[in-house]
Amino acid sequence: MIYSRRANIYDLVSLSDCNLVNVIENYQMKYYFYHLLSWPHLTNITINKGFVCGYSMSKLEEDKNKAGHVTAVGVLRSFRNLGIATNVIKQTRKGANSIAMECTSEKISNKIAAVTNFGESDNAMNKVYDCDCSYLYVRVTNWAAYSLYKFLGYFVDEVAKEYFHDKEDAYSMKLIFKKNP
């Protein structure tokens, strides 16, 4: 069974392994600890057979009032196009503790969609940390990630020239949260 839940300290080695295999931007272990201990509701993982196969790691912006920041999203290549990235990002927005899905021959994304139909105002960044919006940076050449973030309601706020270590430009994307009544 594949399931998603909030990460804990015992997940960080597996989360780091998932990041090292898939993502160009890598972090030291202390950075994962910093995120998890500072913003425990904002790091979520998807697990298959005891190992992290996808994750979303977010934080609060230090230089912007009431803004969240999606630091990293990663999914193992063999688990892509199954809705896992969408799930962990939405789970962060909801602040859910655990979402389980049974694996069948159907695409996992159908199962994920059935249990992650969250409203925009129902998110951890807004409810727990009182954020008004969320930012993220995505490579201008990463069409799949860009499309995912657009689907989730993000829009391009600006282009950050030479943002990444290899000097590639990034889209700074923003999501404005609906206010809770």
From TrEMBL:
<protein>
    <submittedName>
        <fullName>GNAT-family N-acetyltransferase, putative</fullName>
    </submittedName>
</protein>
<dbReference type="InterPro" id="IPR000182">
    <property type="entry name" value="GNAT_dom"/>
</dbReference>
<dbReference type="GO" id="GO:1990189">
    <property type="term" value="F:protein N-terminal-serine acetyltransferase activity"/>
</dbReference>
<dbReference type="InterPro" id="IPR045047">
    <property type="entry name" value="Ard1-like"/>
</dbReference>
<comment type="similarity">
    <text>Belongs to the acetyltransferase family. ARD1 subfamily.</text>
</comment>
<dbReference type="InterPro" id="IPR016181">
    <property type="entry name" value="Acyl_CoA_acyltransferase"/>
</dbReference>
<dbReference type="GO" id="GO:0031415">
    <property type="term" value="C:NatA complex"/>
</dbReference>
<feature type="domain" description="N-acetyltransferase">
    <location>
        <begin position="1"/>
        <end position="178"/>
    </location>
</feature>
<keyword id="KW-0808">Transferase</keyword>
<keyword id="KW-0012">Acyltransferase</keyword>
<dbReference type="GO" id="GO:1990190">
    <property type="term" value="F:protein-N-terminal-glutamate acetyltransferase activity"/>
</dbReference>
